[in-house]
Amino acid sequence: MAKLYFYYSSMNAGKSTTLLQSSFNYRERGMQTMLFTAAIDDRYGAGRIASRIGLESEANIFDADTNLFDDIKMEHETRKLNCIMVDEAQFLSRDQVFQLTAVCDRLKIPVLAYGLRTDFQAELFEGSKYLLGLADELKELKTICDCGSKAIMNLRVDDKGDVIRQGAQTEIGGNDRYIVLCRKHFMEKVF
């Protein structure tokens, strides 16, 4: 049985690096992967997955109108796909997570989804919410707070380093806009 995996973490835990390494491992063994990333995150160019340590690859983009099941099924009919990998999976919609379950259950292709669990206000992203509920396996990737504890929170800051407490759920950025913290230090800064 093909499974849906959700690899989640705060920022800077190596999600994209792990995805790209997994894709390389499949391809090195002669197997085919299909990569997806969110259209909204174009920091490295549209349709590019890039890691902070320099690994990168082309990817298919998804947005709110993308039917992942149809796109994957069509590609699978032209070449046998062995694994689907989704970066920035927090930006998936409920329907798209359901489509990924159908990829596993009907097309028999495993899906590895990588994304943030929560936003800068400790709220679940829609995609993460449904992946947490529907994935066969949940895997936490870990990174650390400045204090050495496990970082699980993403603190949004402005260009002066001041804490941002309100705003749109999605604001694309990296170390210039977000700091990863353990829950204790996140709560001290936010409340």
Question: Your description of this structure?
Answer:
The protein has 191 residues and is an alpha/beta fold. The chain has one domain: P-loop containing nucleotide triphosphate hydrolases (Rossmann fold, 3-Layer(aba) Sandwich), CATH 3.40.50.300. 29% of the residues lie in helices and 25% in strands. It contains five helices and twelve strands. It has helices at 15-28, 68-78, 94-107, 126-134, 183-190, and strands at 4-9, 33-38, 48-50, 56-58, 60-62, 83-86, 111-116, 137-140, 143-144, 150-151, 153-156, 178-181. The strands form four sheets. Strands 5-2-6-7-1-8 form a six-stranded parallel sheet, sandwiched between helices. The protein has a two-stranded antiparallel sheet with strand order 3-4. Strands 9-10 form a two-stranded antiparallel sheet. Helix 2 packs parallel to helix 3 and helix 3 (94-107) runs parallel beside helix 4 (126-134). It is elongated and about 50 Å long. The mean pLDDT is 94.
Task: Tell me the layout of helices and strands.
Layout: E1 4-9, H1 15-28, E2 33-38, E3 48-50, E4 56-58, E5 60-62, H2 68-78, E6 83-86, H3 94-107, E7 111-116, H4 126-134, E8 137-140, E9 143-144, E10 150-151, E11 153-156, E12 178-181, H5 183-190
Parallel strand pairs: 1-7, 1-8, 2-5, 2-6, 6-7
Antiparallel strand pairs: 3-4, 9-10, 11-12
Helix pairs in contact: 2-3, 3-4
